[in-house]
Design brief:
single chain; six-stranded mixed beta sheet; elongated; disordered N terminus
Length: about 140
């Protein structure tokens, strides 16, 4: 999948600049972000949205346990006009009171600006790169 604009998918992950956790996940994270940007851009073209130039995704701030992936809108003037949380990616295996068991690479729906929701919606190390249960607006709700 070719990304039409450099602004659609900002690959800001540089293995040298991040910890060992990021160095091992760089390719998968970049691939996930590119896939999200492609889904959002395809939706923009399909719907013929005229109030923005395009839609994309980028890596947001990261903590020690989770990386934040942001969804963006590119305004008609070419600048990023909005950003919101698309999902969180688990950076390490662990156990938390609120989330239970979490595996490295899990894609989590956001519960708020700072915290992921319970239950993984996919994993970036899967064959589908964690995009199977993701739409242009974020990971799917749990069914059943």
């Amino acid at each position: 999948m070719a990304i039409a604009s450099e602004k659609l998918c900002e690959k800001v992950i540089d293995g040298a600049a991040f910890s060992d956790i990021f160095q091992n996940m760089t390719n998968e994270l970049n691939s996930f972000i590119a896939g999200v940007a492609a889904k959002r851009s395809a939706y923009h073209k399909e719907m013929g949205l005229t109030y923005i130039k395009d839609m994309g995704a980028k890596m947001g701030e990261s903590g020690t346990k989770f990386a934040r992936v942001m969804s963006t809108e590119i305004g008609l003037d070419g600048r990023e006009s909005r950003a919101s949380i698309y999902c969180f990616i688990a950076l390490e295996d662990g156990e938390t009171k609120a989330l239970g068991s979490v595996k490295r690479g899990d894609v989590m729906k956001p519960a708020s600006w700072k915290a992921p929701a319970k239950h993984a919606r996919g994993n970036i190390f899967d064959a589908d790169n964690g995009l199977k249960n993701c739409s242009e607006y974020g990971p799917a709700y749990m069914r059943g």
